[in-house]
């Protein structure tokens, strides 16, 4: 789901639509299965146990966020450190996301789905937390790029397995809203895979591309925010920082050009 994986370079050959997006469909399926399992467990687990599960996911999320963020140390260009670029991306991205009210819009979408499908309780919180958790991370980015460029869905299949297990834990606490995060996976990973299919010569090996490294590092900082939210340590508006994922590689290109 979040771990940064090194994958070997694969010869680039034309791939069909299914091959480009197969990893995304597998990911959607595992999240739905995990949600179903979580719903079954939720009926038999007391609240205290559900809370422990959520805290466990939160602790692991913090660790994975730190692991991801360490890729910033590899994304250095000239005299500009990757951490400085990440700071600028997070600040400007957060300001832009707050101005666009991305967090509010995501919650509005969650509330609409909750009303449309007669969800209950923490439906929206589960939808938002799971959507951010499953979409932000190097495995989502690298896996989608690999799938779209070469048709190799190995990384996304591993991510799908991890997401399915996380969905069980999250659903036991938040409910069926977690399952609707599969819609965001379908749009985000599927769209990224299709886009990557148009760029094979530009990004033949996404695991070592510095633009991907800095984007993954910024994503790691956002994952840390999700972990803090799950543990009720703070209320970080993670969705507001989403533009930082686009700004980070742009800042890297600008810094490289200037130096």
Description:
The protein is an all-alpha fold. It has one domain (17-258). It is 70% helix and 0% strand. It contains ten helices and no strands. It has helices at 17-42, 47-69, 82-99, 102-116, 123-135, 138-150, 154-174, 181-196, 210-230, 244-258. Helix 3 (82-99) crosses helix 10, helix 5 (123-135) runs antiparallel to helix 7 (154-174) and helix 6 (138-150) packs across helix 8 (181-196). The longest helix is centred in the first third of the chain and has 26 residues, at 17-42. It is globular and about 60 Å long. The two termini are 34 Å apart. Residues 1-12 have low confidence and may be disordered. It comes from Stenomitos frigidus ULC18.
Return the structural class: mainly alpha
Mean pLDDT: 82
The proportion of residues in beta strands is under 5%
Query: How many domains make up the 3D coordinates?
Result: 1
Helix content: 55-70%
**Judging from the principal axes of the Cα atoms, what is the shape?**
globular
Order of helices and strands: HHHHHHHHHH
Helical run tally: 10
Radius of gyration: 18 Å
Indicate the low-confidence ranges by residue numbers: 1-12
- Quaternary organisation: single chain
The major β-sheet equals: none
How many beta strands in the DSSP annotation?
0
